[in-house]
Every structure is written in C-alpha cells, then in structure tokens.
Amino acid sequence: MKSRGFSAGRVWAMLLRYLYILRSSWPRTLELTYWPTLQMLIWGFMSQFLYANSSYVFRAFGVLLAAVMLWDVLFRGQLGLTMSFLEEMWARNLGHLFVTPLRPYEWVLSLLSMSLIRVLLGMLPAALLAIPLYHYSIFSMGLPLVAFFAVLLVMGWALGMAICGLILRQGLGAEGLAWTIVFTISPISAVYYPVSILPDWLQHAAWALPSTYVFEGMRAVLFTGTFRADYLFAAAALDLVYVTLGAAAFLFAFHDARRRGALLQMGE
Amino acid sequence: MVELAVKVENLVKHYSGTVAVDGISFAVGRGVTAALLGGNGAGKTTTLSILLGLLLPTAGEVQVLGEDMLRHRYRVLPRMNFSSPFVDLPHRLTVRQNLLIYARLYGLPRRGERIERLADDLQIGEFLERPAGKLSAGQKTRVALAKALLNEPELLLLDEPTASLDPDTGDWVRSYLEDYRARTGATILMASHNMGEVERLCSDVMMMKAGHIVDRGSPEALIHRYGRTNLEEVFLHIARRSRTELEPVS
Fold this sequence. Notes:
heterodimer, A: 268 residues, mainly alpha, 12 helices, 76% helix, B: 250 residues, alpha/beta, Rossmann fold, six-stranded mixed sheet, four-stranded antiparallel sheet, 9 helices, 10 strands
C-alpha cells in the first residue's frame, strides 16, 4: 500500500467523493448554474438599457456583463471550496478521513480541484447563453480572460482556505461566513465602477486586492483594447501572498483541531 | 520477548484545564484483543483518538506497530483502521461509493474484488448500491466494519463496536471480530461499556477511571481479584469507589 509522500490517487479519491455528492443531488447541480445564469440575465437586460442611456456602458456593451461573470469566478471559487469542505463537516466525516493516510494538503488539493469544476459548471452555461441572448461573448476578450479567470480563482481559493480554517477553529457557527465574507470585499474591488470613484483612503485598500487589478485590467481591455501586464503581475504577486496566508491559516487550524480533539467531534 | 502492537508511556492529555488522560502507560502485544473499560469521561475515547493520530497528546510517547505515532503517523496509518458507530459514513453516497473512496485512500489494488469479498463476508452485498444514510443501525455497523477492514489492518481500533445493536446482530459482529483476529493475527483494541462483549472477546482488560488505568488483567483475573461473579460487577465496584480507594497500576 502506498503511504509515503504525496499521492495523486488520494487526491483523486477525494475529488471522486465530491463528484459523487454533486451527482447524487440534481437540485445542487442545478443551483450551480442557476445563480450565474440569473445574474447574467439581469445584468444583460440592464446593459441593454444602459447602452442607450449611459456613456459608460456605451463605450463597451459587455463591461457590466463581463464584470458580473468575472465576479462570480471569485465568489464561486471561494464557495466551491468551502461547500466541499462543509460537506465533510455536515457528514461528521473528518474522523474517518484522517485515520487514513490522507494528508491535509492532499485534501486541500481535492477541494481546489472541485472548486474549479464547480466554477466551470456554473460559469460556462451563463457565458454561452449570453452569446445568443445579448450578442456578447466574454470569450472575445481572448487570452486576458484566462489570466483574469486564474487570478480571481486563486483569490477565491485563498479566501476559501482562510474561511475553512476559521470554521475548523470555531465550528459550524462560523458557517455563515462561507456565504457572506466575499461580499465585504466587493465594494472595494471596483467590480462595476473604476477604482478612482472610491475615496483616496479606500483606494489604498482597493489596490491591496488582486481583484481590483483584474477589474481595472478588464476595463482597459474592453475600453481601449490594451492588456495591462503590470496589473496582471501585481495581481499575481498579491495572489501568491494571499494564497500562502490562506493555506497557512488552514493548516494551522487543522493542527489546532488535532490538538483540541475537534476532528472527531466536528459536525452539526 | 513479546512483540508489541501498541506501547504508550506517560500519556497525558489536558483540554483547557480538564485532565482527560493523566499519565497512563500500557502495552498491547500483537495478536491480542484488549479493551479499555471505564465509565463516561474515563479517558477511553481520548486514548483511542491519540492512538489514531486524530488527537495530539499534551505529553507522553506513543508507539504503534513499532513506529512513533506522533512523528511518523503516515508510516503506520495504512496498517491500521478504526470503526465507531458514533462516526457515520457520509449518508448521501452509496455503500459501494463510500467503500470505493476509502479503498482508494488506502491505495488498495483490485478495489472492486476487495469490496465484493468483504460484501460477501459481512453480508452487505444486497445494499451495496443503497445510500449509507438509508441503512438500519445493524447494517450501518456491518458497513462501518467493512470500511475498517478494507486494508486488512494489523491493528484495529474499535469504539463501542456493538453499541445500539440488537443482541443477534451484536453477537454476529463479535463472532466476526473473533474470526478476523484468529485468521489474520491482527491486534484489536476496543473501548466498550458492554461487559459481556469484553468478557467474550478480550484477554486483556484495562480498567480506566478519571484518566488513569486503575486495574488491569484478563476478565477472569479481574473477576477473581475483586471476588465477583462477572466483569459488570467489577466495573460497578470500580466505578462507585473514588480513585484514591483504588490502587492505579499506571
């Protein structure tokens, strides 16, 4: 039996578990695509209205639609990770999992993989539906879209790992944070408006977030057709810092849970 | 010299001011079925959790199957397993899916064959495709046992293995465990409140109270030592006396 060091087989085993869970409940699968599609519909109609009444949207019809879809990458990236994590908490399964040779980092890798799958399942139908409905394709952004997607996904993972760490520390009483915490950074991420709208003091906080660089970069691509590589590098560097902090918070909380005996007791 | 499956020295566990385990030491030889016996809060589950690597002790040393559990638990986890009726398998997955995932986590070859063989042995074949949450208590126990035996553990830790089972199913599980130990030479260490079960299965019983091992011996030796007719009377005798009236063995 394999036991020493990293095992892709164990990561796959955990990923398989989350895929089985997803497959076992069609309402949950539907929910994955429901909100992104609904958001896209609302903001698509809003864009059609503003296109005729706002110079901001007139400059690029897709600016609001692209923003809402990219914002969902961050939100769904974080939520996709924490939901899989919460499945284990609700099932009181940590005691079973960690008497196997599964390493905490292998579990985290499976959570990240599942997060990517959930994001793609949620975003692709909405993005494809926008093409016939509004004659707008987010894919027309080309390669910058891949960069924006990656930065936001990794930021979602950083947040998700920190939240999972907090839930490991505080128990399921902190579960609500999984749904709400990402919205606290929404106003300063300049998702729907330029960062220059924010007060000066808040702009400093905004530029500390990778998401701000993505949305400013997105507007640069859509309004002027230029790709701001400097924004991408800054966002990637910040992502690296945050994902390291998120992983450290999670692994510290896991170690602390072993010290407190929470792995056997954790659950509803 | 007896080869040891478990060796614990001066094990201490404090939870924010509460002493759960207070400096216990014991060893269990390979191939033995041993029990930790004691009332609620005696420290049985805490001791098992530390042996499983789920809980870090405050102090002490733990060796499992010749490895230092606190430093090298990943060397030994593939060789041991655990079952408890208080830790369910995920409800929405079928029994087969659950077993398949654990088989993969243990890196087992020929997983399908192994699951089929266990399904035959433990008579769970008819509900392999049923969600784990829709099983009766007896069925869940058999499935939990199948999960615990997937990797043919050399050391099997059991927490109340027959709790909430009817006498017939309980008897069936006990027979299966006896057979497994005889067939494989595995070591079984269980925490239990069921005195009849311990008398039947175990050759070595450690009586725990308030984080200490207050007595130890075979069921027959303990019954004889306290002048009682069965282990339940010994248990009650120990449970109803303060710890200072009893002379700890560790």
